[in-house]
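Tip: read the tokens left to right.
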């Protein structure tokens, strides 16, 4: 069993991006500039955005954090999005989700300039991805592809079962792994909470992508020997053994499933670190496009 180490791989990626930024500086080019819009005081969002800003510093990017009050109106937030769209100094930006309930998330995401949508959530970018055109790939699926490629995990001709159909992970993964190219050329079954006899499908799978959000859902009797497992789930579960009072677990019963795997991502330390690294990579791509 080999761990698909997202911490090490993301660290390698950041070093590669930092070297590219240094080359850009040396040749007098503009360096990438990533902005993040944070609305309110959600603890998880504050932590996540903070880690993005620190990652920008690590690789030499410019970064801007726009922290807005949670009572901001939808109209005012749309004005902020329009301002970022028009700002030629910013290569890409993200609007951190979730947003307060009085704001329509879809309306905000639709207003983002697709050329600056480094999260890859805009329908224009999603459609280009589905058509195998050059575009921004959502950061988490992009990170999974990078892990599979760097560990030389074969996907061609394999049966992949994706569990979960979100627009952020499950659905794009089903498209990306069935596309032509590497990683890709797999036969993909997209499943979800209403799929009948799910275990009969997971038992046939060569590769399983778990993105359901239910802790330790995938058990050892649901997988075959030699399976590759990508665990996207991340849930805080109360624990008396942890000083924090909780532990972070994935969608896979890791302790019992891992011995049957050829490759598996740990939680934490697997897919999570890759997401931020690929957001940086998308921003670098945006910067290069702007200069061309």
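Filled-in amino acids:
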């Amino acid at each position: 069993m080999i761990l698909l180490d997202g911490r090490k791989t993301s660290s390698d990626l950041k070093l590669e991006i930092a070297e590219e930024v240094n080359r850009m500086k040396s040749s007098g080019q503009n360096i990438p500039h990533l902005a993040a819009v944070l609305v309110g005081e959600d603890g998880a969002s504050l932590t996540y955005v903070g880690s993005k800003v620190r990652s920008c510093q690590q690789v030499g990017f410019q970064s801007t954090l726009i922290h807005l009050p949670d009572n901001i109106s939808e109209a005012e937030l749309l004005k902020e999005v329009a301002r970022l769209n028009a700002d030629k100094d910013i290569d890409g930006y993200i609007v951190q989700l979730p947003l307060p309930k009085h704001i329509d998330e879809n309306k905000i995401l639709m207003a983002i300039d697709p050329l600056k949508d480094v999260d890859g959530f805009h329908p224009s970018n999603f459609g280009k991805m589905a058509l195998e055109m050059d575009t921004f790939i959502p950061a988490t699926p992009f990170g999974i592809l990078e892990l599979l490629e760097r560990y030389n995990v074969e996907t061609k001709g394999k049966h992949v079962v994706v569990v979960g159909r979100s627009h952020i992970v499950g659905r794009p993964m089903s498209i990306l792994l069935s596309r032509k190219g590497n990683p890709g050329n797999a036969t993909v079954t997209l499943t979800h909470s209403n799929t009948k006899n799910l275990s009969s499908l997971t038992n046939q799978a060569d590769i399983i992508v778990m993105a359901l959000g239910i802790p330790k859902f995938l058990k050892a009797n649901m997988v075959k020997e030699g399976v590759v497992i990508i665990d996207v789930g991340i849930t805080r579960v109360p624990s008396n053994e942890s000083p924090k009072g909780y532990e972070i677990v994935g969608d896979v019963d890791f302790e019992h499933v891992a011995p049957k795997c050829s490759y598996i991502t740990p939680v934490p330390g697997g897919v999570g670190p890759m997401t931020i690294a690929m957001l940086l990579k998308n921003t670098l791509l945006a910067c290069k496009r702007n200069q061309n």
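The chain has two domains: 27-113, 139-272. The two ends are 44 Å apart (CA to CA).
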